[in-house]
Amino acid sequence: MSAADFESVACEASHAAGRVLRRRFRETGPLKIESKGLHDFVTEVDREAEDAVLSYIRQRYPDHGIMSEEDSPEVVHHGMRWVVDPLDGTTNFIHGVCPFSVSVALEDDDGLVAGVIHDPFHEETFHAHRGGGARLNGEPISCSQEVDNDQAVVATGFPFRELERLPQYMKSFEAVVRSTAGIRRAGSAAIDLAYTACGRYDAFWEVGLSRWDIAAGTLLVQEAGGIVTDIAGDNRMLDSGDIVAGGKALHGFMLGVTREAFGGAPPR
User: Fold this and answer.
1) How far is 48 from 208, CA to CA, in rounded Å?
2) Fold assignment, 149-262
3) How many CA atoms does the CB half-sphere of 137 hold within 13 Å?
4) What is the DSSP letter of 241?
5) Could you say which of 55, 74, 132, 237 has the lowest number of CB atoms within 10 Å?
6) How far apart are CA 257 and CA 2, in angstroms?
């Protein structure tokens, strides 16, 4: 199959999970909520959505590896492997807040092959495949390229899993506040990356994420003409979970901020 074919499968798989999220979001009954760690939650909806997307993929590619947040969180290192977050923005979902999303990516030994971020509430699907550009509901999208720092809107997320890094993060936060038109915190890293890919945000940075949070969004930004690195400027973001993404002009500025705040290379 071609990369474009895999992109189509990723779209369909994300929509299968999205139908679960859209239906369950309208329900008024209490959710069964479990804690996986500090400020890190999972619900019955996460698992139902995950069942939907993984069933779709496994029926078509039983020999492919899968790395999914709830079902199989261990990294598959070789061959074709899917990287899935069935509900990115669980805390938002619990509180009846948008946005939340489904993130589905496919990797091979050369890197990212396809990536999809689906927002079922707003019926927006951001999708890309390697070498094919990025799209929103079938229409081409691109990162913002020519923007001054003082006009830029930048997205972020707080390092709730790694609070020991909060002092460095707050240093970066202050630098961005002082130098841009504003910061937004949506509560879904996948959505932040999708919005960066289509130019709604000019850049995005966060630390302490997981591979399933950022795999699809990384490909989207790259195929939309942007740059994605870790906070030191290296290509380790999927492994480290520390990410800086944006158009060419803003990425350089943001990388300067993170290098200054975090002292160069990430600690992991």
Assistant:
1) 26
2) D-Maltodextrin-Binding Protein; domain 2 (3.40.190)
3) 5
4) -
5) 74
6) 39
Is residue 145's pLDDT more than 90? no
Q: Which amino acid is at 48?
A: E
Kindly report the pTM of this predicted structure: 0.92
pLDDT bracket for residue 70 (50, 70, 90): low
Phi and psi, residue 236, nearest 5° = -110, 15
Domains 3-141 and 149-262 share a fold: no
Residue 72: DSSP 8-state: B
Closest CA to 199 of 219, 218, 221, 170: 221
Which residue in the block uniquely carries the two structure tokens 């805390």?
A: 91
pLDDT above 80 for 36 = no
Superfamily for the 3-141 domain: Fructose-1,6-Bisphosphatase, subunit A, domain 1 (3.30.540.10)
Q: Is the peptide bond before 62 cis (omega within 30 degrees of 0)?
A: no
The per-residue pLDDT for range 88-138, each reduced to its tens digit, is 998 899 888 999 999 999 999 999 999 999 999 999 999 999 999 999 999
DSSP string, 173-200: HHHHHHHSSEEE--S-HHHHHHHHHTTS
Give Cβ neighbours of residue 251 (< 8 Å, ≥ 6 apart): 203, 226, 227, 229, 244, 245
CB 258 within 8 A of CB 231: yes
Beta strands 227-229; 243-246: pairing state: antiparallel
Question: Would strands 111-119 and 101-108 be described as parallel, antiparallel, or unpaired?
Answer: antiparallel
Quick one: average pLDDT of 189-214? 97
pLDDT score for 267: 42
CA distances from 264 to 8, 158, 205, 255, 257 (A): 39, 19, 15, 10, 10
